[in-house]
Amino acid sequence: MDFNDTPAEAAFRAEARSWLAAHAPAHEMPVGIKLEDTDEAARGRAWMRELFDGEWSGLTFPKALGGRGLSGVEAVIFAEEEGKYNLPKGPFTSIGTGMALPVIAKHGTEEQRRTFIEPTLKGEITWCQLFSEPAAGSDLAALRTKAVRADDDSGDWIVNGQKVWSSWAHLTDWGILVVRTDTAVPKHKGLTFFVVDMKTPGIETRPIRQISGMSEFNETFLTDVRIPDANRIGAVGEGWACCMTVLMGERLGSGAHRSGVEPILDLAARTPAEDGATMLDDKAVRLALADALAEEQGERFFQARLRTMVSRGENPGALAGMIKLAYATRQQRVLGLGMELQGLSSIAADPADSFTPDLQYDYIYSTVMRIAGGADEVLRNQIAERVLGMPGEIRMDKDVPFDRLK
Amino acid sequence: MDFDLSDEQKMLAEQARGLLAERTPYDRLRALIDSGADWDEPLWRELAEMGFLGAAIPEAFGGLGMGELDLGVISLELGRANAAVPFFSSIVLAADAIRLAGSEEQKQRYLPRLASGELVGCFATAEGPGPLLGRGLELAGDALTGSKHPVADAGVAGIAVVQCGARLAIVDLEQAQVTRTRLDSFDQLRPHYRLDFAGARAEVMPGENAIEILLDRAAVQAAFEAVGGAEACLEMGRGYVMERQMFGRPLASYQAIKHKLADIAVAIELARSNAYYAGWATGTSQDDLPAAAAAARLTAIKAFELAARENLQVHGGIGYTFEANCHFYYRRERTLSVNLGNRGHWANRLLDAQPGSQGKAA
């Protein structure tokens, strides 16, 4: 066991660090200013282009497809170094590289790879994800958006339905879309995967008014949207396998997060308590913070163990979900504690206090972490079934054609 | 980075697990409790022969000179088996205390005999309810007066390392000025004693400031032991619910049960990860030791606590019987949760090690 970099890893880190030092500062986001989302997305594209020109994009992608063909460990090292800068990264960049590209690389045709991979790596094409629906979240295969062949000889598909939680759908160029093409077979078997140009007539995105007051998520309505058959990824009826490829990328990506406990520790240290003490002297606060800090370290070292597995070519599978489950619940707990230790002023802060509004926002947003990318309950099922080998859930929908389901 | 046990460490774990599974099945633990035994002496002799006792003791003092992580691998397996041996008292605490604070001559005199298992040591610090580091002992020259209690494994120990204020002293327990009284131990597989010293001869060790680092190092081993115990509980609970049928299907198919065991599995992996890091840091990155040990300690006790309680819970009524095996761990977990200082102590240790929090802390 060695927690330190191997000589090769250290060399790679040094290379990444020096390149970032030369190129990242110019792309850093301004501090304390809320950017327009169009501006943020444009900056995201520019950073993608910089990465591409420096040969730092698609690190784990095969060389033949325009990537660098490096290991998962090197990708993690680069992400660690990149994470030291406040760069314009978000769903508008990660959905493309983390979800659309893996599925196109694995299930797409040569033509599709040529069309989409390089432009995506360059930031010329950005992506959104059109998966979830009002009645299909954790049970994604229950989705109802339907595609039928056009009644001409074009081979095109006509899509109708509604998608939700599509981050940045209003500003991205293309979407990855899963739809139902056959209702007479069991639900997982009747799905087909497409990429769709978001400028296609019939696509309307409407911002969702979220509990945070923000609207980065959308609902997307698809009305008689015509998609050429050339934009189908994989065979008709094989959409579920494509979704699994996408969701695996999402799960593996969910592990690396920034520290959540340290800012709350600092907050406690500067929040006054009785008799000149601070809230960091409060025994209950200390116990809660220490617990959270210990868990956070555990997550970090667990991530290191998974990274070692990945470097050996092993797939951590449902183990990766453990980190996400631990992280999301801890984050909500710690942010809640952060509000609590400030007292009533965490509810209505002094206008000069710039920290508390962020804390309030993060506390609201922590609910998203527990739902998106595998809800807590879904992850617990997966851990029980795949790690502990316990029985699967009793299902009422198995082998039942979709159109016969309640 | 290579953040996994080495192949040799995995072999060591397998070897220890195989031996313990064979020599100390649960029926053996029940027999030991019924006979009021102080320990599983044949198992102790066998652990000595296998080299497990001297694993991390330097070669110059009769050990194998392996690292703390290797020792952790053994601690984990002993925790998993809930073995009734004074490994933690004699090896993790007494021998390590002498290694850290003893003179060359003391190391030469005691460590080889501790490594071979012919001498057993114990560690005496508590003085009844209250803080871990008792302050009531009187040391006049080399004459020790006062009481330490409870002291684990003092019945089979030949020497005690006794904490006297900021110093550590070695006390021969065979002398007439020492009285040992067996207490009724909640942990039936780890007997506890009261030690009364009436002007007992004590050899004060020259090393200063050894206690904190000793406790940090021991906390890492206790964390491994707790992870082993938690693992055993998870496997036992899983095994039971997979077999047990209820309302026409396996108990394991109920989501309430699946989620409970999934939470335990997560807690164990976080604790194991912290223990690995702390085991590595003990030998390699001393500055990180206090925080690493505290984090390992806190998460391991949390995992063991959850696993011990919920393992008994999923067993239902049968878990409350002596014939079931849940109780060994339900009791042992409480020993581990208090034997190196409570949650508050380790919370402080972790927070005080955070950069920037010194001076602001309680």
From TrEMBL, chain A:
GO terms for molecular function: flavin adenine dinucleotide binding; oxidoreductase activity, acting on the CH-CH group of donors. It comes from the Bacteria. GO terms for cellular component: plasma membrane. The keyword Protein biosynthesis does not apply. Residues 6-124 form the Acyl-CoA dehydrogenase/oxidase N-terminal domain. Coiled coil: none annotated. Its cofactor is FAD. Residues 237-388 form the Acyl-CoA dehydrogenase/oxidase C-terminal domain. InterPro entries: Acyl-CoA_Oxase/DH_mid-dom, Acyl-CoA_Oxase/DH_mid-dom_sf, AcylCo_DH-like_C, AcylCo_DH/oxidase_C, AcylCoA_DH/ox_N, AcylCoA_DH/ox_N_sf, AcylCoA_DH/oxidase_NM_dom_sf, Mycobact_Acyl-CoA_DH. Keywords: FAD, Flavoprotein, Oxidoreductase. Transmembrane segments: none annotated. Residues 128-223 form the Acyl-CoA oxidase/dehydrogenase middle domain. Belongs to the acyl-CoA dehydrogenase family. This is Acyl-CoA dehydrogenase. It comes from Novosphingobium kunmingense. The lineage of its organism: Bacteria, Pseudomonadati, Pseudomonadota, Alphaproteobacteria, Sphingomonadales.
UniProtKB/TrEMBL annotation, chain B:
It comes from the Bacteria. Gene3D superfamilies: Acyl-CoA dehydrogenase/oxidase, N-terminal domain, Butyryl-CoA Dehydrogenase, subunit A, domain 3. Residues 6-118 form the Acyl-CoA dehydrogenase/oxidase N-terminal domain. Its cofactor is FAD. This is Acyl-CoA dehydrogenase. Belongs to the acyl-CoA dehydrogenase family. Transmembrane segments: none annotated. InterPro entries: AcylCo_DH-like_C, AcylCo_DH/oxidase_C, AcylCoA_DH/ox_N, AcylCoA_DH/ox_N_sf, AcylCoA_DH/oxidase_NM_dom_sf. Keywords: FAD, Flavoprotein, Oxidoreductase. PANTHER family: ACYL-COA DEHYDROGENASE, ACYL-COA DEHYDROGENASE FADE28. It comes from Novosphingobium kunmingense. The keyword Isomerase does not apply. One of its GO terms (molecular function) is acyl-CoA dehydrogenase activity.
